[in-house]
Specification:
Elements: E1 3-9, E2 22-26, E3 39-40, H1 51-54, H2 57-66, E4 71-76, E5 79-81, H3 100-106, E6 112-115, E7 118-119, H4 125-132, H5 135-148, H6 153-161, E8 164-165, E9 171-174, H7 175-195, H8 203-206, H9 208-213, H10 216-224, E10 229-231, E11 233-235, H11 241-254
Parallel strand pairs: 1-2, 1-4, 2-3, 6-10
Antiparallel strand pairs: 4-9, 5-11, 6-9, 7-8
Length: 262
Amino acid sequence: MNIKILVSTHKPYQMPKDRTIYLPVQVGYDEVDTHFGFQGDNTGDNISYKHRYYSDLSAVYWGWKNLDVDYMGSCHYRRYFVSRKAKKNEDKYFWYILSRQELEELLPQHPVIVAKKRNYVIESIEKHFKHTHLPQDFDLLRSVIAELSPEYSDAFEKVAASTSAHLFNTFIMRKDYVDSFCSFMFPILFEVEKRVDFSGRSEFESRTCGYLAEFMLDTWIIKNNIPYKEVTLKVLDGEKKLKKACAMIKSKISGEKYEQSF
């Protein structure tokens, strides 16, 4: 079984030892002078030069267009899908992440794996985005979906009204599902990019295509009735849940926008 899980990173970082399935990809490769010895997102058909707008999606696009695999996944240098069967081994930092053996058991039964849903509880996905980011970006995504893929509009509205979602642009899928998802997502994001004026935006808000993409996975799943398996996603060095919760409440009350990722 040919599996590649792309581990996107913009900095040197400890990586899993099993490189037969985990492939570190340096995103924005063409935008920097320092390279870390990882696969760049700048070969073949790529959007490395647009990394500033798409964040980790430049690795997803590269994998979609250039990898000949049975299954492809996306995770981050700090976020990994966690195994429930893992036993401690010599891979000190990564012994608890999904192994080849477990993936080969899971994937034939569950060809689409996503992270467990993030629950916002106090507000909908749409309201949360508009409280923490530029609200016109969400409305623009809605308009572009209606124009380019109107058959997905109802599913998108369900996602927008929900208080939970599968986030972080992370997944593991059989390659035909990757083709279906990316063929839906990227043309819409490219059109959104064309219509956004990035002049004067902060680095954080310039990554809007990457943030908006987080709502397109569930839109695709709902519209196409895609069966999936939820697996826990763990932050390697711990998640700042209290800090994020405080920022979320503050943004809801005062309208103060996020200035960084958490």
